[in-house]
Amino acid sequence: MNLTQPASLVDHYLQLCEDRQLDQAGRLLAPGARLVFPGGRCFGSLDEMVAASTGTYRWVRKHRDRYLVAPDGDDIAVTSLGRLYGQWPDGTEFDGIRYADVFLLRDGLIVEQHVFNDLAMAVAQR
């Protein structure tokens, strides 16, 4: 099993999301995919996810430091580890906020994305 292809697919998906090419990114999601964000917030589409994050920051991107890939039954689990950087609503920049995104891939498409990060802690400390 070639485990580099799933990491490349996830990296491409994350880049498309950062670039707000949501239609293209959405093509990498399986029908009925679940996007689960901090606080247990579940979204069924990228448009829903973007709308829910309005007001938290002006923009955010990821330093994608490494990928962990492993078979999970018939699926493949991919974890992206790194640091968030961006700009708060007042224009102040931030960097170095930890994140872990866990993806489940099936038949070459993303069926689940689970997002974990320290963004809420960073907001509370401001």
Short structural description:
With 126 residues, the protein is an alpha+beta fold. Helix content is 27%, strand content 49%. It has a single domain, classed as Nuclear Transport Factor 2, Chain: A, CATH 3.10.450.50.
Describe this structure in words.
It comes from Micromonospora endophytica. The chain is built from four helices and six strands. The protein is globular and about 45 Å long. The termini are far apart. Strand 4 (75-87) and strand 5 (93-106) form a beta hairpin. The protein is of the alpha+beta class. The protein has a single domain, classed as Roll (Nuclear Transport Factor 2, Chain: A). The longest helix is centred in the first third of the chain and has 15 residues, at 4-18. The model has no long low-confidence stretch (mean pLDDT 92). A six-stranded mixed beta sheet has the order 2-1-6-5-4-3.
